[in-house]
Amino acid sequence: MRPMERLRWLMLWGLKITGCWMVACVGIVVLLRFMPLPLSMVMVEKWSYAMFSGQPVALQHDWVSASHISNNARLAVIASEDQKFPDHYGFDVDQIVKAIDARLAGERLRGASTISQQTAKNVFLWNGRSWVRKGLEVWFTILIEVIWPKERILEVYLNVAEWGPGVFGVEAAAQHHFNTDAASLSAYQASLLAAVLPNPIRFNAGKPSAYIQRRASWTRRQMNNLGMGYLKRLDQPRGWLSWELLPSLKELSPAR
Question: Collapsing DSSP states into helix, strand and coil, what is residue 162?
């Protein structure tokens, strides 16, 4: 086989493999639109690392549906992590620009990830800051924004976020830190959980430091400013290819 023919053959098979991978990704995201997640890739990563390091850890994780998660928890996470969550399409452009400007100015790298991006990373990828992982995060963020409604993205995020060493999901976090369930979390408890999300290994929601108390207090003020009615915005129609916006066949049919 000539070199050019071999190159064309490799490129053809590369395109086929890439196409199959993309179709498989879409299929998995569609499937996870409806079924509970028994685990996430970050959970697998943490468990594998603990096993290979000789320090096995028992993962705590109990999936609960959105109807069994208190509105306090849902609003606290949005207020603390991503107040534009109901409106953006997966990426907060303003925060990304600010993060780039800060980096160019020599400041410490600041986070600009939305709840959608964090969900994509936790469910499908691994921790780290490589360009490959970031590129894949963009891909999966677009997929879940296209295929999942905002309510589903938030539900999955609350069920896969880490709230302590081996403690994944809001149900396990509520039981571990407050001896209650996700449906019964108060505004105070929910704000403490939201306050430790940037670094749940370093900080403890059940035994909050003065710093976490201040962050939780700020979160509660933001919750009050937004109000519980803010959660209704998760149901609003959005752009992209969200199938909630697809017109019915009746609307498409010509008038008689």
Answer: strand
